[in-house]
């Protein structure tokens, strides 16, 4: 009788983690930064129809890298969770912490299950508070762990290099223009140390703006407003030209099985 093939649980989990990390690393990075009036999300994404950054609820937004179909399913599930909880209890009961816990349970269950492959996704869930000290940013890797982030965070692509660049240069109280420029500078850096030029047409930008009078704090920064912010010296405040829409996705290149 032949001896059955055996792989230790530690090796099996290490192989699954490496598989997921390689898929995530092929995607274009997303950067999230705190600024004086809220939280800004910046991604390299030329599509205006498919998004990496999406609204989940009044003060909560979602960003992701990896396989589009996988993180789109997670986004839809998050919207349903938020709507149901807000309707059953109260809108204030919907929090980024609660949403991050739901995502962590889902990702952790899938990652530890031998019956299916791990999700090749990395998520960011952020909630804007009444003041900068109340902002919440959570990063969720493929294995379902939760990392509480402060100030700045990057996922996907060469996120380690981008994260180090942001950590050295990000500071509290930045204007939106300053934070946006820093994010674009970090995304422009290649893994080999070179730099690229990213234009407004290649970027997807959205903010959670605590100064908005309406209940929904999410809005997309588009067109002339985005171009103007990229050209400013960092002293101007954001305008209300664009509105937020709860939609999710990725660039056309990322709508295939894996991001390129």
TrEMBL record:
Coiled coil: none annotated. The keyword Hydrolase applies. Residues 228-260 are annotated as: Disordered. Belongs to the peptidase T1A family. Component of the proteasome core, a large protease complex with broad specificity involved in protein degradation. PANTHER family: PROTEASOME SUBUNIT ALPHA/BETA. Pathway: Protein degradation; proteasomal Pup-dependent pathway. This is Proteasome subunit alpha. Keywords: Cytoplasm, Hydrolase, Proteasome. The formation of the proteasomal ATPase ARC-20S proteasome complex, likely via the docking of the C-termini of ARC into the intersubunit pockets in the alpha-rings, may trigger opening of the gate for substrate entry. Interconversion between the open-gate and close-gate conformations leads to a dynamic regulation of the 20S proteasome proteolysis activity. The keyword Ribonucleoprotein does not apply. Residues 236-260 have a biased composition (Low complexity). The 20S proteasome core is composed of 14 alpha and 14 beta subunits that assemble into four stacked heptameric rings, resulting in a barrel-shaped structure. The two inner rings, each composed of seven catalytic beta subunits, are sandwiched by two outer rings, each composed of seven alpha subunits. The catalytic chamber with the active sites is on the inside of the barrel. Has a gated structure, the ends of the cylinder being occluded by the N-termini of the alpha-subunits. Is capped by the proteasome-associated ATPase, ARC. One of its GO terms (cellular component) is proteasome complex. GO terms for molecular function: hydrolase activity. It is found in: Cytoplasm. The gene is prcA. Pfam families: Proteasome (PF00227).
């Amino acid at each position: 009788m032949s001896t059955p093939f055996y792989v230790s649980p530690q090796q099996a989990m290490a192989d699954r983690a490496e598989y997921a990390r390689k898929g995530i690393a092929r995607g274009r990075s997303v950067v999230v930064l705190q600024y004086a009036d809220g939280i800004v999300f910046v991604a390299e994404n030329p599509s205006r129809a498919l998004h990496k950054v999406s609204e989940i609820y009044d003060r909560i937004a979602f960003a992701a890298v990896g396989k589009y179909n996988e993180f789109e399913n997670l986004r839809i599930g998050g919207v349903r969770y938020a709507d149901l909880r807000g309707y059953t209890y109260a809108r204030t009961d919907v929090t980024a912490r609660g949403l991050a816990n739901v995502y962590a349970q889902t990702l952790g269950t899938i990652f530890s299950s031998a019956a299916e492959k791990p999700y090749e996704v990395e998520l960011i869930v952020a909630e804007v508070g009444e003041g900068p000290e109340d902002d919440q940013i959570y990063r969720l890797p493929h294995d379902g762990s939760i990392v509480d982030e402060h100030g700045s965070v990057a996922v996907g692509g060469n996120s380690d290099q981008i994260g180090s660049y942001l950590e050295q240069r990000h500071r509290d109280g930045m204007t939106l223009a300053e934070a946006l420029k820093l994010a674009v500078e970090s995304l422009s850096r290649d893994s080999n140390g070179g730099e690229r030029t990213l234009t407004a047409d290649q970027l997807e930008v959205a903010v959670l703006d605590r100064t908005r009078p309406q209940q929904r704090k999410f809005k997309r920064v588009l067109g002339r407003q985005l171009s103007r912010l990229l050209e400013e010296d960092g002293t101007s405040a954001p305008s209300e030209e664009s509105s937020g829409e709860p939609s999710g996705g990725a660039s056309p290149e990322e709508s295939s099985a894996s991001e390129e």
